[in-house]
# Entry
Amino acid sequence: MTSVRLRDGALDIIEAGAGKPIVLLHSLLADRAIFDKIVPILARQRRVIVPDLPGFGGSSSAGATIEGIADRIAGLFDALELGTTADVLGLEVGFCEQVHTGGCSAAGCVARAAAAIDYGMCDVAFLLFADTHVLEDRTDHSHSYRREWTDPYGLMGPPGAFGLLTRAYETKYGLDYRMLGKLAVTQRNHALLNENACEKLRVPITIDDYMNSRIIADPIRLLDCVMRTDGAAGLLMMSRKRAKEKGLSKCIIPIGYAERTNFKGGENLVDVTKSGHEICGKKALGAAGIGIKDVASFHPYDDFIIAIMLQFEAFGFCKAGEGVQFIRDHDFSYNGDLPLNTGGGQISAGQAACSSHNLVEAVRQLRGEGGKRQVKDTRNALVTGIGWINYGRNWGSSAALVLVPE
# Structure
């Protein structure tokens, strides 16, 4: 068996014969530099044993390729990078949490931070949202269902899934694509007023531009789709008492939150136009003590334009199948009767900072810091989240968060 030991700060590896199992000790895996030096040795072996390591269960992985094992182990380092972030920022913290519910993570962070503060696990929570999609795309779907069940058939990722979802809706209810174009134009107009929006997207568009944009995954058009960008955002959360002690004003309070993951996941055949927002929306609004008609501004997660209309229906702004008419009847501009994604939404501002754009924009509006796009009614704001795409159904996670000013 190969043994590994440290001697005078250097790595000393004694290699065993080919075919012998190698035991990777948890303590050694805690150091990426050591792990990287071990990989060439592992590449010449046929079996790897990883005791007491999450995701491996201490079993031997006979016949597995070392590349596959290495990728899985390296993935564990990514999960440990929370500590690295604290180190880079020079922070000594008493409580750490990573939230991985897809596009629901930003809203979910608020709820989890509030719970941690109420429970006494921390006094002040720093919510950090940062990613570098463009600089270094580290998205890996190789272990998801897509590799086996959708990609080989040409359904390449979310645009294809939303293309099918859109067709399903159109077949069931009918669909006026110019009304989707109205939403796209409204959000783009807001992005033009947002200096923090991605500069490449701050270009005026018309409904005709939307209709004539090239097809990506029929009937999904280019201007239906979100564009991933690099960016970061941060929020500070604390108790009312601590905020008062610090002399802080214009504080925003989360008064209602709910989420739903794997909606109808146990059913084989589902209506793909339905989502967990039907459940978590009612729960969050109920906790906040308001009705859907009381919502002053709406900040829905938007990876595709159709998702906004589906959320109108799921939250009860209108009935199922009446989304098009609802869009036709309302003004969603920042000074309209239902302000919508006043920062431009992700589609027109860029999908960055862990999809926290709509959350940060809602906070900014309630603080009266919207600038030229400031809404008049700051009684409350409804923020939503959408997670990943599940196989054969709607999005996998849904979240709703109601915010009010102090």
